[in-house]
Write a structure and sequence with these properties.
With about 120 residues, the protein is an alpha+beta fold. It has one domain. It contains 4 helices and 5 strands. Strand 4 and strand 5 form a beta hairpin. The model has no long low-confidence stretch (mean pLDDT about 90).
Length: about 120
């Protein structure tokens, strides 16, 4: 996955939802003081080779993290959301922007807290 494609997708998310969508996700951007794209990808790269999952993640790029230290990866076709602390993951054929849009609708649940979709009045 090309870095520029991920950064462009993240800019679309930022334009529509801000840098902290749903007050839970942290969108990674280039040269960001707290959530720098390059630094976070370097820091979390080792997860791709962990043995608790059987995923081939060589083409995936980290595009967001969460308040719970969940990691969100994208390869241009699929988003993998993973929780290294509980050794769980889910894989969805979806773009990051669509992923963020679906969260409050309750169509994407799994490893995330229910209040992300239960508090939408």
């Amino acid at each position: 996955m090309e870095k520029i494609n991920v950064l462009n997708e993240n800019l679309r998310i930022k334009e529509e939802f801000g840098i902290f969508p749903h007050d839970f996700f942290r969108i990674l951007l280039e040269n960001d003081t707290h959530f720098d794209f390059d630094r976070e990808n370097a820091d979390w790269d080792y997860i791709k080779d962990e043995t608790w999952h059987d995923l081939n993640m060589k083409d995936y790029v980290l595009w967001a993290t969460t308040d719970n230290c969940d990691l969100l990866w994208w390869n241009g076709n699929r988003v993998i959301a993973m929780s290294p602390r509980s050794y769980q993951f889910m894989s969805l054929q979806i773009s990051p922007l669509k992923f963020i849009k679906e969260i409050p609708r309750g169509t994407i649940t799994g490893i995330f807290p229910n209040d992300l979709w239960n508090n939408n009045d």
